[in-house]
Amino acid sequence: MNNVSIWNSLEIVKLVVSALTPVLVAVIGIYIHHLTKRFEYNQWQNQKLIEKRLAIYDELAPLMNDNLCYFTYVGAWKERKPIDVIMSKRCLDKKIHLAAPLFSPQFFVACINFQNLCFEIYTGWGEDAKLKTQIRRRQQALGAKWDHAWDHMFSDSIADPKQIRDAYMDVMTCFSKEIGINKELCVPLPGKIPCNIR
User: Fold this and answer.
1) What's the rounded Cα separation, in Å, for the pair 166 and 162?
2) What is the full per-residue pLDDT of the chain (198 aa) written as tens digits?
3) 183: phi > 0 → left, psi -120 to 50 → alpha, else beta; which?
4) What is the pLDDT, as a whole number, of residue 190?
5) Alpha-carbon torsion 109, 73, 60, 150, what sign?
6) For the chain, which terminal residue's Cβ has fewer other Cβ atoms within 10 angstroms, N or C?
7) What pLDDT was estimated at residue 119?
8) Bridge-partner residues for 120, per DSSP?
9) What are phi and psi of 189, to 5 degrees?
């Protein structure tokens, strides 16, 4: 009788194990499927984020580069009117603030730092930001093309072009890291900043 009860217990265990095996395989399969779907979703989400960041780069980088050229006296800086530079600040500010949720806080801080080096803000109620750059050299460079209506657009505070270039490089480094293209940006600096601008 004892052998029969052992035999029945062994048969019951075998039956339970054989019944649980497909259930266990199904549960593991569902879990793996869930992990795979979550991984695919994360990949899709990261891809969309990178695409959006690249689109933002395409909008911001040319405007920032134009301001870099203007404030460091390189490239086409003489072709830009002061009012155009101030308008570009407004455009950049809007785009930076709209892009902020898609980037790290370091990116936002780098952008604002660049802007603050170029422009004096809060200059009075209803007043536009002022350009933190040397007016005298710009007047000399443009000569008869200079419009004295632009004179009030310049700040008494003059930013160091080298600091502006460094701040620009900080923004580009953040862009590079956030987009994931280059972890360490190594861009040759665009020539020398003119020494006689002060």
Assistant:
1) 6
2) 455 555 677 777 777 778 878 888 888 888 887 888 888 877 887 888 889 999 999 999 999 999 999 999 998 888 999 999 999 999 999 999 999 999 999 999 999 999 999 999 988 888 889 999 999 988 988 888 999 999 999 999 999 999 999 999 999 999 888 887 765 655 555 555 555 555
3) alpha
4) 54
5) positive
6) N
7) 96
8) 130
9) -70, 145
- The Cα-based distances of 163 to 68, 94, 160, 193 in angstroms read 11, 23, 5, 11
Hey, is 130 helix, strand or coil?
strand
Distance, in Å, from the CA atom of 154 to the CA atom of 76, rounded to the nearest integer, reads 19
Give kind and range of the element (H or E) at residue 131. strand 130-131
Residue type, 17: V
The whole-angstrom separation of Cα 129 and Cα 71 is: 14
Q: How far apart are CA 104 and CA 111, in angstroms?
A: 11
pTM beyond 0.90, yes or no: no
Q: Please answer whether residues 179 and 54 qualify as being in contact, where contact means their C-beta atoms are separated by less than 8 angstroms.
A: yes
CB 89 within 8 A of CB 115: yes
Residues 119-134 have pLDDT tens digits of 999 888 888 899 999 9
Ranges of each domain in the chain: 52-197
> Smallest Cα–Cα separation from 115: which of 159, 176, 81, 175?
159
